[in-house]
Amino acid sequence: MDRKKRGGCLGNLAILMAVFALIVVAVGSVVGAVYVWSASRTLPTAEDMVKHRPSLATTVYDRNGKIITSLYYENRQWVKLEAISKTMVKAILAAEDDDFYEHGGIKPTAILRAFLKDVMHQATRQGGSTITQQLARNLFLTRERTIARKVKEAILAVRMERTFSKDQILEMYLNTIYFGHGTYGVEAASRTYFGKTPAQLDLPESSVLAGLVAAPEYYTPIRHLARAKVRQNYVLGRMTAKGWITAEEAEKAKKAALPLKKVKSTSVIFSDAPYFTSYILFNHLLPSYGSDAIYRGGMRVFTTLDVDLQKDAEQAIKGLRTEGAIVALDPSTGEILAMVGGKDFEKSKFNRAVQAFRQPGSAFKPIVYAAALEAGYRPVDHLLDSPLEFPNGWKPENYDLKHHGEVSLVEALTYSYNVPTVKLAHLTGLERVTSVARSLGITTPHLPNDLSLALGSTSVTPLEMAVAFACFENGGKRVKPYAIREVRDNGDSVLEKNGPQISEGISSRVAVMVRSMLREAVRSGTGRSAAVTGHETFGKTGTTNDWSDAWFCGGVPGLVTVVYAGNDDHKPLGKGMTGGRVASPVWKAFVSKAASRLKLEKGFGIPADAGVEIVTVCRHTGYLAAAGCPAAEITLPSGEAPTARCPLHGGSYSIAQADSSAP
User: Fold this and answer.
1) Helix, strand, or coil here: 186?
2) Quick one: DSSP state of residue 285?
3) Angle CA(179)–CA(181)–CA(185) in degrees, nearest 5?
4) Is 171 marked active-site?
5) C-beta separation of 456 from 363 below 8 A
6) Is 217 designated active site?
């Protein structure tokens, strides 16, 4: 073939190839356009994007606005862009997308470069995603490494840029990205790693956090500080190259020590006040609002808890050799100030403060005495402490296995005599004792209908006992215990608001009389080890017959606290392990700190309508105290106090016999 013909053939071939290429490109463009159109139909619209709400953590606060814990599927709290330090913003731009404010959501050259490298490696290994693309992927797509996902990501990025401003996109990005250790968003990350708000982040901290985004678990400074420093150097280098910081500032940041916090294990949902948190979560929040609202809704829960008192209570309970519980109430409102349901929540989720029904032993006796006073008895009246046996063979005995003859009510309660208490319950009537128990707030279904009730054979929770003893402190009012003051949604609308629920319990006269008798129990009786220095203290020990449960229930002005100690399997604590020996020291340790921390009053007030007078009597005889008497300062109904001096300790027998108000 001559050259002319050969040249003509080659020219025709070139033309054919060019035409074919154009056809391929045209077909490819059409196919690509159809594919993009088809893919876009399955993706969120602009309206969907505006309506989208990310999963936000619900934050639980104490009564003073301190954060107790967060409840979440993803640990995230939203923060406005202007509340994030400018240094942090620049660091994240330098690390992830330094010309974010110049592009329209995608970088075609970067996508092409990534595509070619991915094709050569037969997989999508190259990045090239802008901040907008990353946000689109995080919000609406999976993390699968496919070309299809990349196409959808680019479509969404362009759509997002048309829907939101750059600042809005950056704000959403900073609030949604994962920073490792279960933290999502810059607010959770800055608090988790450095204990700061995002506004407080400086250059060293910002550059470390920004460096985390590429691979949070790989670059975490908590576990891999050297890797984190390498990544930090990269971020600082990019910031320097952009002219956002000087070389000197970068070097200083590289050398700065990082004030890292100890990150708590994410295996424990409730790291602080765990028993209290689980109590409000499972008893109120989840039943009322559902799991989606609680774990994703970004709600704010304002509780009655005092987180400092809670820490004191958690420290105090470590003094128990067994398991136990502590409950502290504000007796005027019923607010739960502290709740500890055990020594280690990780080992046992059983909340003994509200779930452990245990016999209170002698701690129940004040309820018997309250019923007797309601029936007309006085603290100075007498009972005979003598042997007692019932037809069924039951013979109640005193702790010291002795009988003490004729004793006053205040003496019998001070020294926790069993036999006089059983007799008093019999004289008063079980129906009245049960009625007063209910009036005081004892809700247990386990009240026995026999005289063993007088010695605490019922089963109650520590929270119930705290409510009952609050009635003695506050002048007879029954308070309903509550733990949540207010709940707000993510838009700051109030969903619920709670306050004190107070009703009539017992008369104020009876309440202050019982309280004065219990003050004597602490001053001179079985509760001596619980006395809080500088504060009037009232309370009662409780011990079961087989030494399996130990209690101390009582209070100081403005605070009522119950401490329970015992084994979950009901094994005995050991012979002699009484409430005074086991529970009282723990009670005193906690209440002493609480009284100081809360700056509580030194002494109790008396309601104006109580109709009582304060009288110093002989604890044994009940007459006005003489010089040699074991004196007790108690309250009695006005006009009903004895007028004669104690005849056993210097007073006149004839005057005592003639006293119309004699015990």
Assistant:
1) helix
2) I
3) 35
4) no
5) yes
6) no
